């Protein structure tokens, strides 16, 4: 049996974490890792202790902002970064594995916290129906490596 690459392991974990999301519209997972160690994990959803969209609004999900995004939830990247910072983890130089490319707002947070690389599975631009991968372009412009996952997800039992 061959040993899986860490990129594969971390992305598989992000995919499986996405299954924890209570979002009605999209499930997204994130893993923040540094030096082959997991610093933090996250998935999209409202702040802890508030509500669960799929339970409170199972048919429609929560209210949307003007861009069509959830007005209440934190993105998976935000949850992973917030948890790491709350626990005094040093995220500078870390790699973020996420199942959906970061939006522009998340890209700014990623840059500001010193994360050095983002590996994403699916396109945010395709999901939103927009022309440009704004978050990825922002990261690349300011020196953060960002690339679409090219590895192997053989251990994921069900993709979303």
UniProtKB/TrEMBL annotation:
<dbReference type="InterPro" id="IPR002125">
    <property type="entry name" value="CMP_dCMP_dom"/>
</dbReference>
<keyword id="KW-0378">Hydrolase</keyword>
<protein>
    <submittedName>
        <fullName>tRNA-specific adenosine deaminase</fullName>
    </submittedName>
</protein>
<dbReference type="GO" id="GO:0004132">
    <property type="term" value="F:dCMP deaminase activity"/>
</dbReference>
<feature type="domain" description="CMP/dCMP-type deaminase">
    <location>
        <begin position="5"/>
        <end position="132"/>
    </location>
</feature>
<comment type="similarity">
    <text>Belongs to the cytidine and deoxycytidylate deaminase family.</text>
</comment>
<dbReference type="InterPro" id="IPR016193">
    <property type="entry name" value="Cytidine_deaminase-like"/>
</dbReference>
<dbReference type="GO" id="GO:0005737">
    <property type="term" value="C:cytoplasm"/>
</dbReference>
<keyword id="KW-0862">Zinc</keyword>
<keyword id="KW-0479">Metal-binding</keyword>
<dbReference type="InterPro" id="IPR035105">
    <property type="entry name" value="Deoxycytidylate_deaminase_dom"/>
</dbReference>
<dbReference type="GO" id="GO:0008270">
    <property type="term" value="F:zinc ion binding"/>
</dbReference>
<dbReference type="InterPro" id="IPR015517">
    <property type="entry name" value="dCMP_deaminase-rel"/>
</dbReference>
<dbReference type="InterPro" id="IPR016192">
    <property type="entry name" value="APOBEC/CMP_deaminase_Zn-bd"/>
</dbReference>
<dbReference type="Pfam" id="PF00383">
    <property type="entry name" value="dCMP_cyt_deam_1"/>
</dbReference>
């Amino acid at each position: 049996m061959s040993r899986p690459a860490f990129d594969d392991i971390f992305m598989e974990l992000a995919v499986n974490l996405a299954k924890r999301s209570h979002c009605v519209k999209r499930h997204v997972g994130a893993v923040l890792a540094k030096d082959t160690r997991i610093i933090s994990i996250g998935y999209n959803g409202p702040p802890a202790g508030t509500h669960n969209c799929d339970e409170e609004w199972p048919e429609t999900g929560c209210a949307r902002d003007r861009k069509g995004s959830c007005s209440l939830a934190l993105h998976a990247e935000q949850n992973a970064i917030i948890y790491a910072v709350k626990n005094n983890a040093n995220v500078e130089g870390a790699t973020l594995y996420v199942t959906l490319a970061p939006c522009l707002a998340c890209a700014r947070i990623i840059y500001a916290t010193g994360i050095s690389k983002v590996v994403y599975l699916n396109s945010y631009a395709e999901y939103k129906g927009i022309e440009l991968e704004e978050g990825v372009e922002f990261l690349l412009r300011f020196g953060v490596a960002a690339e679409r996952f090219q590895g192997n997800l053989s251990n994921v039992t069900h993709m979303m």
